[in-house]
Amino acid sequence: MLLSELNDIKEKLIKEIEKSSNLKELNDVRINAFGKSGVITTVSKNMREVEPTERPKFGAMINEVRKTIEERLGKKTEEFEKEELNKRLKEEQIDITEPSKGLEIGAFHPITNVIDRLTDICVDMGFSVVEGPEIESDYYNFEAMNIPKNHPSRDMQDTFFITDEILLRSQTSAVQAREMEKRKPPFKIVCPGKTYRNDSDATHSPIFHQLEGLVVDENISMADLKSMLTILMKRLYGEETMIRFRPSFFPFTEPSIEVDVSCPNCHGKGCNICKGSGMLELLGAGVVNPKVLEISGIDSKKYRGFAFGFGLDRTAMILDSISNIKSLYKNDIRFLEQMR
Ligand code: DAH
Q1: Fewer CB under 10 Å: which end of the chain, C or N?
Q2: pLDDT in tens, 44-77
Q3: What pTM was computed for the model?
Q4: In 282-326, where does DSSP find H-type helix?
């Protein structure tokens, strides 16, 4: 073999490299040169046939050819890869000015909204938010709230009993006794949560929600309760809201009141939401009966308290103009979508 032949091989490979128009063709050239039976591989193998005196020159020449071809292949590969990348960048370009498909945005459930709003206001006033069990004992739900077994006031709450002593709590008031046992006065707590009664029509659901509030301190009076509830109502329904306190009865408070607010829809004129009365009944409240404090181990000579219990479903229905309480529990996506 002659050095000139080697040079021809080199020139031919360079031409092939230049001619190739993509990575695949370039790879064919690479195999053709350096593969098992590639030209450069074959020439290297055939070194033995070269005259010994010629070998060093020949060897150097082969190395030079190998280096040149590898360099050319490398350069061309880089070019193709760059081209490929630019092509992809162009093809996959995103037009950020195109209108989007629109994201589905979820909404909070009306009850969750009411709980958040009320607890936010109460936390601002220094209350702590607590929770209690929904499966409750007869003791905390009734007896500790001054409602003994067989007492007629139990009839006010048509309760789901699980056993004689275990029930689904019919009021969040059950949490009052639990907290009074745990805490040392003074303290202020609110407890939002689910409650259950055997009751079902357009304004009653067997599962519903309440928010209980309890303040225990020295020198608590009805005036504290009235002013706190007035601030709470005005912050919830607006500054112009009128508040009415009516005498009532609850076994756990003495005196007891019920609290009405002017209808936020008609502002007291009378509409279908307030059934023409202009006012809406929202919660029960009162000064904690000293017996209730004593049952839970709080000295009723030193401490007094006030408490209140909100119906949250009603509050949500008024705030979001919902006419049937069942809508809150059906999980109908069309209803929930309106709450956005
Ligand atoms: N637990 C009462 C109910 O479910 C509401 C209530 C009234 C709660 C007066 C209170 C209260 O804390 O002081 O009807």
Answers
A1: C
A2: 888 888 888 888 888 888 899 999 999 999 999 9
A3: 0.71
A4: 290-295, 312-319
